[in-house]
Amino acid sequence: MSGVIRHVTISGRVQGVGYRAWVESEATARRLEGWVRNRRDASVEAVFSGPEDVVAEMIATCRRGPSSARVDSVQESAGTPDLLKLRGAGERFAFLPTV
Predict the structure, then answer these.
(1) Cα torsion angle, 58, 52, 78, 75, sign
(2) Is 38 a catalytic residue?
């Protein structure tokens, strides 16, 4: 299995509903690396790194979200090692400040 880095932006009712904590829990359970943060435009942004099939499964899960959320869209693109480095040294999966 090859490793990939994917950058996603999730739009809909995804702030104020525990979406970031849910993403962290789901990603950690899948042993993925990366981070999640809110954006001022009311979307949630995340980066996932790991085996390609596991990352794809995580992104599919993001399209559903937790029961309190309403996901309207998930935009997905290739991520970069520099994006992954936004988390703190030694962190596997991190919450980043809102941008």
Answers:
(1) negative
(2) yes
Structural domain boundaries in the chain: 3-80
Q: Which helix (H) or strand (E) holds 60?
A: helix 52-64
Given 6, 20, 37, 87, the catalytic residue: 20
- Predicted TM-score (pTM) of this structure: 0.95
Fold of the 3-80 domain: Alpha-Beta Plaits (3.30.70)
Q: Which residue has the tokens 């525990």?
A: 18
Q: How would you write the pLDDT of the chain (99 residues) with one tens digit per residue?
A: 459 999 999 999 999 999 999 999 999 999 999 999 999 999 999 999 999 999 999 999 999 999 999 999 999 999 999 999 999 889 999 999 999
Annotated catalytic, 20?
A: yes
Annotated catalytic residue within 38, 39, 87, 92: 38
Residue with tokens 């009712």: 13
